[in-house]
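New to this. Explain these tokens.
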Amino acid sequence: MKRLLIVVAASVLAGCATTDVVMAPPATCKGEVACKYRWGRALAWVTQNAAYRVTQANETIVQTAGPLPNSTRSAISVVRIPNPDGSETIQFQSGCDNMFGCQPSRAALESNFRAFVMDTAVPGSAGSAGAMGAKAAEAGVKAGIEAGVR
């Protein structure tokens, strides 16, 4: 009887655990101007949307504090990874410390992050202001880093 009770309890708890598998491709960029611009947008998104304060922000990583014990609020980490072909991947990670899941879910956070980072045309690309776009991208990264660490 004890074994049956343990099996039932384990099954119930396993059913409560959530697995957030995100199938969307990560944010990517190619070229110095495009990657600086997208990274600036990544910094801005984390600064504006993170549940915890940003503890580290530079040219390769943005990381927040947290998560707090048993909290459904997610800590966020974003890493800029160079690829062999010259492109870069902007990898998003989040997680909380709650056995019932995070609110909002990791899938929702990552989807919103990717949509924001990839949403707009990159300055300096076809149909944009060229050198002006490069300066705007540089300014965006600096502002994002300065505003991100609070």
About this structure: Confidence is low (pLDDT under 50) at residues 4-19, 127-134. The chain has one domain: 26-148.
